[in-house]
Design goal:
Order of helices and strands of chain A: EEEHEEEHHHEHEHEEHHEEEEEEEEEE
Largest sheet of chain A: 6 strands, mixed
Largest interface: A-B, 25 and 18 residues
Number of strands of chain A: 20
Oligomer: heterodimer
CATH topology of the largest domain in chain A: Rossmann fold
CATH superfamily of chain B: MetI-like
CATH class of the largest domain in chain A: Alpha Beta
Shape of chain A: elongated
Order of helices and strands of chain B: HHHHHHHHHHHHHH
Distance between the termini of chain B: 9 Å
Helix content of chain B: 55-70%
Helix content of chain A: 10-25%
Number of domains of chain B: 1
CATH architecture of chain B: Orthogonal Bundle
CATH topology of chain B: MetI-like fold
Chain lengths: 359, 283
């Protein structure tokens, strides 16, 4: 059994009368890379700041390394944080930015030098040590911010949307570097982002947060394959999952639209039989119908050619719209009609009232 | 970075030259006046070219002084008084106001906004309004004719406090938080981060406050009665005769020119400093 690095017990947070975190709990194991994913305002940054000690939880307990940390100052929590705007000291050189936290802690000059040099080596900052932050590019500043965290050798790294200030290309590159960094130093990391690609690629486990709650805590692939709620289903995946209102058959093994079209399910649903449900279909899980028995027909409205994929937007004739991902080079134009069927084992069924997954 | 420049033409130079001439001419007259003997000036025939008596005039002003009311107090002493007062006021103002704004901006304590507004309100009360009560306090404390009496009442500065506050508000919260995580306490954060970041502001305030201190007139006039404590600005006024005695205009002009030098030097020296600071933060 690996050790528990961070343990959150029923954390609640109020700002004035508004409750932004509704009581969340989570156990993070040592060496894990946890990504907290959610839209703006879902409370993910606040939660990270509670772990860092920059905010106080209204209720609940924060354990780091087995110790209760609620009343402990950020500096004594043995964590390091990377901020969205880097928060480098503008008047200090790269070297001093990285060494500062160690200096304040009274570490000897020789030890500081060893640690800073090592971190600079990992991050490829050796040639920049005498520069000031203004003389660095965005990616380099980001690296210095990470270097400042690494030299501390903390028990956990906290990343607060560290890549959002970078341009798209650099973001991809830094994402890779963070992943490599984690593979080499293996420090527990908690990473907050609203970018699902960052979340999917970096996370060992993913926490999807919505309106102050954890909607799902699982591996990225599980979150993709079996989203726990409607919110998660709609948030993960691009283009977004199609959501269609259908009726579950009384036996629970098939769904059908108001128009009568429908399809049978690979695994029958035991709840909500005969009731209205929301059926989620990922665009990549709708395929061209092979035989004459088309499950439904799509009237094509817009075609987006992305090269590797062709994204087709259309309607089902009854007002419902559907997006389909087809292979690149597929010849189709607006106004055409497509015969499609859903992959029977890739159908998601949700309760329209609670948003919870049913199958 | 260079600002975009409109094409230079003779009109703009013409107006610049006129403007400069208007400002510089009186200074030039003072400079010329300090190089002639008293007889030439007394006849009202001051030429616009330098005269032969520059050295003796400046030596007399610097070493002996002039005028009945301040006889025997050389300009050197008055300038030293002015310098001590101006420098002390400058450092005092910057020290007090930077600490007050640090408290108001970065700490949450009961009455924080009350104190902020109290400081703010003093902006509405110029020195002249509160000069009599201030005089009473200083005199009761026995500080008449002393440096503390000259300096302390002028140290509190709402303007500088507000200026530092505005600057501190631009320091991102993340920087404060990064410091907290790095383990720097409030004093450490002040010394290691806030103070170095404020150096451009400090340089600018230094210039303004030094000139403010150097040019003080009303307060030193009230608080110093012995001529040995007089500042240069007061001294120059007192050198002008009251009517019975002859006024040594050439000595007064020399003293005036000498009195201009420290502010000019501060501006020249500090300008390099804060232009450098501005350029560093611009990128």
């Amino acid at each position: 059994m690996s050790n528990i690095a961070v343990n959150l017990v029923d954390i609640k947070k109020d700002f004035g009368k508004v409750r932004v975190i509704e009581g969340v709990s989570c156990v993070i194991e040592e060496g894990e890379f946890i990504v907290i994913l959610g839209p703006s305002g879902c409370g993910k940054s606040t939660l990270l700041r509670i772990i860092a000690g920059l905010e106080m939880a209204t209720e609940g307990r924060v354990f780091i390394g087995g110790k209760l940390m609620n009343q402990v100052e950020p500096k004594d929590r043995n964590i390091a944080m990377v901020f969205q705007n880097y928060a480098l000291y503008p008047h200090m050189t790269v070297w001093n930015n990285m060494a500062y936290g160690l200096k304040v802690r009274g570490m000897s000059k020789a030890d500081i030098e060893i640690r800073v040099k090592k971190a600079a080596g990992i991050l490829g900052l050796e040639g920049l040590m005498n520069r000031k932050p203004q003389q660095l590019s965005g990616g380099q500043r980001q690296r210095v911010a990470m270097g400042r965290a690494i030299v501390r050798e903390p028990s956990a790294f906290l990343f607060d949307e560290p890549l959002s200030n970078l341009d798209a290309k650099l973001r991809v590159q830094m994402r890779l570097e963070i992943k490599k960094l984690h593979q080499s130093v293996k420090t527990t990391s908690i990473y907050v982002t609203h970018d699902q690609v960052e979340a999917m690629t970096l996370a060992d486990r993913l926490i999807v947060m919505n309106a102050g709650r954890f909607d799902q805590v699982a591996t990225p692939i599980e979150v993709y394959n079996r989203p726990a709620t409607l919110f998660v289903a709609g948030f993960i995946g691009s283009p977004a999952m199609n959501m269609i209102k259908m009726e579950l058959s009384p036996s629970g093994d098939a769904v059908k639209m108001a128009s009568g079209n429908g399809f049978s399910l690979a695994h029958p649903v035991t709840r909500a039989k005969g009731k209205e449900v929301i059926v989620g279909l990922r665009p990549e899980h709708v395929v061209l119908s092979q035989g004459p028995s088309a499950t439904f027909s799509l009237w094509v409205e817009v075609v987006e050619i992305l090269g590797a994929d062709t994204i087709v937007h259309g309607n089902l004739g009854n007002g419902d719209t559907l997006t389909v991902r087809l292979p690149g080079g597929f010849k189709i134009a607006a106004g055409d009609k497509l015969n499609l069927q859903a992959m029977a084992d890739q159908i998601h069924i949700f309760d329209p009232e609670t948003g919870q997954r049913l199958n | 970075m260079k600002r975009s420049i409109l094409p230079t033409n003779w009109q703009s130079h013409f107006f610049l030259v006129i403007g400069v001439a208007v400002l510089v001419f009186p200074v030039y007259v003072a400079l010329i006046g300090s190089t002639w003997d008293s007889a030439t000036i007394a006849r009202g025939e001051l030429p616009l070219r330098p005269g032969p008596n520059a050295l003796e005039n400046y030596l007399q002003a610097w070493g002996k002084g002039s005028g009945q009311r301040v006889w025997g107090v050389p300009v050197a002493v008055m300038m030293l008084n002015s310098l001590i007062m101006a420098v002390a006021i400058t450092f005092g103002k910057i020290a007090i106001s930077i600490i007050s704004s640090y408290a108001v901006v970065f700490f949450r304590f009961p009455g924080r906004m009350f104190f902020f507004w109290m400081i703010f309100v003093t902006l509405m009360l110029p020195v002249e309004v509160r000069i009599i009560p201030t005089y009473k306090v200083v005199s009761d404390l026995g500080m008449i004719n002393s440096y503390p009496g000259l300096i302390i009442p002028l140290i509190a500065s709402a303007t500088a406090t507000l200026l530092f506050r505005q600057f501190f508000l631009t320091i991102p919260d993340e920087l404060v938080e990064a410091s907290r995580i790095d383990g720097a306490g409030p004093l450490r954060f002040f010394w290691d981060t806030v103070l170095p970041l404020s150096r451009t502001n400090i340089a600018a305030l230094f210039v303004i406050m030094f000139i403010y201190g150097w040019n003080q007139y009303l307060w030193p006039l009230l608080i110093t009665t012995s001529k040995e404590m007089g500042t240069i600005v007061i001294g120059i006024v007192k050198m002008i005769g009251t009517g019975d005695a002859q006024t040594d205009w050439q000595i007064i002009m020399a003293a005036t020119v000498l009195a201009m030098l420290p502010p000019v030097l501060v501006v020249i020296f500090m300008q390099r400093w804060f232009v450098k600071g501005l350029m560093e933060t611009e990128k």
